[in-house]
Recover the amino acids of this structure.
């Protein structure tokens, strides 16, 4: 009986390690365009992508993303001229991102209605480094690999297992999008 419990526990741990992607960075596919991004890890190489939905129209309002073989979703700004609210949707999960303060794109509340994370720039008026304001769910930071170059980012993801990959995509996208020189 004890052997069976240990074996089931081992299978549970193995299954959980397969579902979580280790994201260590994101970078543009092309040096002169911010419409296509690759998500990568050191061990596995490219593990996902973020692409503008309508690149020929340069519509920065809608994006599609993939992460691994299972996770696919959309990122959309619900209102045309309002950069303070975004929705990330993936297989029934909806993550809402809103600015913490009106007209301040340096601090965001990101929620799935059960968990709320507060993402902000590390220093005011410097979009090169971002982090979670509280560490109730673990540590998360993202910073430009080269200072003032928004084409490549390094990610430190030590979040708890209860933070979904969709919510992680929301964190990453909010940082990358709002740090682009076109904003």
């Amino acid at each position: 009986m004890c052997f069976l419990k240990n074996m089931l526990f081992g299978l549970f741990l193995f299954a959980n390690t397969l579902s979580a992607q280790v994201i260590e960075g994101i970078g543009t596919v092309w040096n002169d365009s911010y419409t296509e991004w690759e998500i990568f890890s050191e061990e596995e190489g490219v593990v996902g992508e973020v692409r503008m939905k309508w690149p020929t129209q340069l519509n920065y309002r809608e994006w599609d993303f993939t992460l691994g073989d299972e996770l696919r979703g959309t990122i959309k700004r619900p209102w045309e001229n309002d950069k303070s609210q975004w929705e990330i949707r993936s297989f029934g999960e909806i993550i809402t991102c809103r600015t913490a303060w009106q007209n301040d794109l340096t601090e965001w509340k990101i929620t799935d209605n059960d968990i709320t994370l507060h993402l902000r720039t590390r220093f005011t008026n410097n979009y090169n480094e971002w982090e979670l304001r509280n560490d109730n769910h673990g540590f998360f930071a993202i910073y430009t690999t080269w200072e003032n170059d928004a084409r490549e980012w390094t990610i430190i993801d030590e979040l708890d297992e209860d933070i979904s990959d969709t919510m992680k995509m929301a964190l990453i996208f909010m940082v990358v999008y709002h740090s682009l020189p076109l904003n």
Notes: The CA atoms of residues 90 and 166 lie 7 Å apart. Helices lie at 2-19, 165-179.
